[in-house]
Amino acid sequence: MRTRIKVCCIASVEEAELAIAAGADALGLVGAMPSGPGPIPDHRIAEVAAFAPPPISTFLLTSETSADAISAHVRATRPTTVQVVSHIDPAEAARLAMLEPHVRRVQVIHVDGSNALDLIPRYAPHVHAFLLDSGRPSAAIRELGGTGRVHDWSVSAAFVEASRRPVFLAGGLTAANVGEAIRRVRPFGLDLCSGVRTDGWLDKAKLAAFVEAARAADRGLDARQGPDAP
């Protein structure tokens, strides 16, 4: 199966075009955050979301924590998908599903230990997918993504194995480590930001190298899982 690629921290229509041309399946559009790279104004998020052609998905990254506030953010920007970057109350996740039934919902899980797996049953009934990241939501200044740090992939692999929902992997991914990430974790998709940027701007060469490395890893898995594989 081809591993999907989501290019996050998209800042403009021009970056969106570059990401799509390189083979991105989805674009990440970062709303206001307490920390981290890539936030853009809601009007710019709406502009990129309106530009993106099908079948490209547009992910709104929101730091809102109540269903009503998340819903308002969705309606102001019109993405295809909302990515909730905080560990919100599952009751709010359930209410969001009622408020926005036609928008795909992705819950971020910040992996700081094996207890991340305990969150699967809390959110799985209310979301379409999970995204594993390396933030620290309990820090004095909350980190909700974009850290550039790799977390414990053994926990991520166990999460993928345990989840019936698709799982995206984020956190410190680059062309140098994406092959190992795919082989070890087997995620549905990859989420990347800082690893394909130079001085804050999307780097065409880094993005091309990342996509090629991911596709090479996919081909390697396909070869090992073929009809003649042991």
How is this fold's topology laid out?
Layout: E1 4-7, H1 13-22, E2 26-30, H2 42-51, E3 57-62, H3 67-77, E4 81-84, H4 90-99, E5 104-110, H5 120-123, E6 129-133, H6 153-162, E7 167-169, H7 178-185, E8 189-192, E9 197-198, E10 201-202, H8 204-224
Parallel strand pairs: 1-2, 1-8, 2-3, 3-4, 4-5, 5-6, 6-7, 7-8
Antiparallel strand pairs: 9-10
Task: Please describe what this structure looks like.
This protein is an alpha/beta fold and 230 residues long. The protein has eight helices and ten strands. It has a single domain (4-224), classed as TIM Barrel (Alpha-Beta Barrel). The strands form two sheets. It has an eight-stranded parallel barrel with strand order 1-2-3-4-5-6-7-8, surrounded by four helices. Strands 9-10 form a two-stranded antiparallel sheet. The radius of gyration is 17 Å and the shape is globular.
* Strands in their spatial order, largest beta sheet: 1-2-3-4-5-6-7-8
Question: What integer is the average pLDDT?
Answer: 92
Q: Under the CATH scheme, which class?
A: Alpha Beta
Approximate shape = globular
Low-confidence stretches: none
Q: What are the secondary-structure elements, in order, as H or E?
A: EHEHEHEHEHEHEHEEEH
Sheet/helix structural class? alpha/beta
Largest sheet: 8 strands, parallel, barrel
- Which architecture per CATH? Alpha-Beta Barrel
Rounded to the nearest angstrom, the distance between the terminal CA atoms is 19 Å
What percent of residues are in strands?
15-25%
Residue share in helix:
25-40%
Superfamily (CATH H level) name: Aldolase class I
The third-level CATH topology is: TIM Barrel
Radius of gyration: 17 Å
Give the count of structural domains: 1
Number of strands: 10
Give the helix tally: 8
Oligomer: single chain
